[in-house]
């Protein structure tokens, strides 16, 4: 029987279809060493990053770690030396995966998502966006054998003082932060210059229509049309928020402005 008054719907593009089967020469590339390649592209396949991925402004590849596993069962981990709970990713297995990754993307930095790593920043994202791409290692279990980190000079990076079950979610966040800085990925490149951390400050508050909502009005200055005064207001608000919420950023901002942080008695 045919249902009347309804249209049939078919998916036109599966998420993983966005990922490169053939390498595009000279295109910024994110390569991910992971036990769960099916986790990608994930949210990277949506919105602006997904459109840019489809348009070939960047490309995404996975290196399935299990394919380099040892023995019949493709083991990738073993018990920690010295005892302790959990398992540790084996150095020989990871080395084989990294050798394959580096042969496909030579010269790209190797980054390992780790809570003990150096905090990832907007400046680091910008530097990565200006390069050829990057290879990310997604940890699992109790982490990765230190010998691999040392031998391959892997850069450990952290998204914050918390622990995830694996590096895949963190890898997507890091890739997103970098990809959006690639020219033409964002429709309005000026928005990149105005957002948080671009000038060492948190971003000022944002408002839109309606002018009054639930008894709360948009600040009059933003509706004045006086662009110089609006810019001054936004700067003051950004400084206030940064000072209140991120004293560490505020001190760094003052030093960059050749101002002595110790003179600010409120810190």
From TrEMBL:
In this protein, which residues make up the domain named tRNA methyltransferase TRMD/TRM10-type?
31-251
Q: Which InterPro entries match?
A: Alpha/beta_knot_MTases, tRNA_m1G_MeTrfase_C_sf, tRNA_m1G_MeTrfase_TrmD, tRNA_m1G_MTases_N, tRNA_MeTrfase_TRMD/TRM10
Protein name, as recorded: tRNA (guanine-N(1)-)-methyltransferase
Q: Which GO cellular component term is one of those annotated? A: cytosol
A molecular function annotated in GO for this UniProt entry is:
tRNA (guanine(37)-N1)-methyltransferase activity
Ordered alphabetically, the record's keywords are: Cytoplasm, Methyltransferase, S-adenosyl-L-methionine, Transferase, tRNA processing
Its quaternary organisation is:
Homodimer.
Query: EC number(s) per UniProt?
Result: 2.1.1.228
One Pfam match, given by its short name, reads tRNA_m1G_MT
Q: What does this chain do?
A: Specifically methylates guanosine-37 in various tRNAs.
The family assignment reads:
Belongs to the RNA methyltransferase TrmD family.
Q: Which reaction does it catalyse?
A: guanosine(37) in tRNA + S-adenosyl-L-methionine = N(1)-methylguanosine(37) in tRNA + S-adenosyl-L-homocysteine + H(+)
Which HAMAP family does the entry link to? TrmD
């Amino acid at each position: 029987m045919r249902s009347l008054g309804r249209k049939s719907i078919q998916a036109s593009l599966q998420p993983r279809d966005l990922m490169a089967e053939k390498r595009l020469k000279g295109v910024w590339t994110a390569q991910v060493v992971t036990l769960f390649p099916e986790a990608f592209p994930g949210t990277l396949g949506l919105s602006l990053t997904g459109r840019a991925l489809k348009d070939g402004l960047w490309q995404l590849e996975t290196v399935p770690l299990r394919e380099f596993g040892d023995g019949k069962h493709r083991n990738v981990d073993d018990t920690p030396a010295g005892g302790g709970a959990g398992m540790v990713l084996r150095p020989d297995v990871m080395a084989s995966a990294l050798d394959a990754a580096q042969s496909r993307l030579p010269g790209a930095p190797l980054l390992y998502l780790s809570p003990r790593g150096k905090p990832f920043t907007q400046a680091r994202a910008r530097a990565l966006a200006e390069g050829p791409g990057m290879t990310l290692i997604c940890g699992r279990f109790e982490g990765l054998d230190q010998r691999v980190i040392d031998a391959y000079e892997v850069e450990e990076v952290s998204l914050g003082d918390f622990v995830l079950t694996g590096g895949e979610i963190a890898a997507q966040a890091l890739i997103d932060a970098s990809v959006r800085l690639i020219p033409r990925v964002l429709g309005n490149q000026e928005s990149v210059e105005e957002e948080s951390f671009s000038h060492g400050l948190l971003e000022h508050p944002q408002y839109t229509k309606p002018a009054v909502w639930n008894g709360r009005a948009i600040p009059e200055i933003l509706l004045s049309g006086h662009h110089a005064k609006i810019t001054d207001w936004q700067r003051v608000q950004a400084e206030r928020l940064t000072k209140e919420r991120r004293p560490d950023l505020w001190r760094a901002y003052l030093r960059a402005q050749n101002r002595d942080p110790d003179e600010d008695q409120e810190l």
